[in-house]
Amino acid sequence: MSSEKFEDLEDELKTLQEDISGKITNKIPRLTGELRKSTIREVEKKIEDAKLIIEEMEEEASFAPGAYRNSLMSKVRNHRRNLDQLRRDLAKPSGQVNVSFGREELFDSDPMAPQRNKVMRGTETLNRASESIARSTRVAVETEQIGGEIIEELGDQREALERTRDRLKDVDQGLGKSKRILNSMAIRLIFSCGSKQEIVQSLYVYMYVTDPKLFWFSFYFRIATNKLILLCIILVELAILAAVVYLRFFKKSKSKKKS
């Protein structure tokens, strides 16, 4: 919410209300006929314009922070009551107008009253502008302090991350050394075994510990290889058996028939 916009709307509304009040109090009672009717219509139009300004002020006040919203809404309600009073004064018969908006009754008795009112409005506007600047300055200082704290906290987090990275590097180096030591120990253990079968078993254990995927691949590959060799042996035996049967029975029977 822009406090400057609310204050500009309030200044515009005050000027419009003073103009409406002056015409209701001083001008309309002295007029008659069509001129009086046209002036009343003009005042009614200005009252509608003031109503629109009040609605816009209320919308601006609804977006204000909680610390300022109540005071702004109170101002809006006061302006709405003043506008309702002006509307009632306009509807009164001639000679019964009693405007309670303030300061307008001085127009006839004091010719300098409009200038004083303008000076007072200007002073109020300057005061509100000074208060707005002071609030903006406080917000800027608080924002700067929060930004400094955030930067300091981010610096601490960066240092912590760098220390963690260094520790991870040390751990990685330690793991690499441990892995090399374990590999050398495993190789020595493998070659220290006596029989060929023990060496093969040690190699499988080493693969299972260091690379389980390679172990299972080698395991299934060896099973498939063994099955393939067994199948080849069976086929060879079947071929030999077929050749023996052929030579034993079919070839002998052919030789008998020839003889």
UniProtKB/TrEMBL annotation:
<keyword id="KW-1133">Transmembrane helix</keyword>
<dbReference type="InterPro" id="IPR038407">
    <property type="entry name" value="v-SNARE_N_sf"/>
</dbReference>
<dbReference type="Pfam" id="PF12352">
    <property type="entry name" value="V-SNARE_C"/>
</dbReference>
<feature type="domain" description="T-SNARE coiled-coil homology">
    <location>
        <begin position="118"/>
        <end position="185"/>
    </location>
</feature>
<keyword id="KW-0175">Coiled coil</keyword>
<keyword id="KW-0812">Transmembrane</keyword>
<dbReference type="Pfam" id="PF05008">
    <property type="entry name" value="V-SNARE"/>
</dbReference>
<dbReference type="InterPro" id="IPR010989">
    <property type="entry name" value="SNARE"/>
</dbReference>
<dbReference type="InterPro" id="IPR000727">
    <property type="entry name" value="T_SNARE_dom"/>
</dbReference>
<comment type="similarity">
    <text>Belongs to the VTI1 family.</text>
</comment>
<feature type="transmembrane region" description="Helical">
    <location>
        <begin position="228"/>
        <end position="249"/>
    </location>
</feature>
<protein>
    <recommendedName>
        <fullName>t-SNARE coiled-coil homology domain-containing protein</fullName>
    </recommendedName>
</protein>
<dbReference type="InterPro" id="IPR007705">
    <property type="entry name" value="Vesicle_trsprt_v-SNARE_N"/>
</dbReference>
<keyword id="KW-0813">Transport</keyword>
<keyword id="KW-0472">Membrane</keyword>
<keyword id="KW-0653">Protein transport</keyword>
<feature type="coiled-coil region">
    <location>
        <begin position="6"/>
        <end position="89"/>
    </location>
</feature>
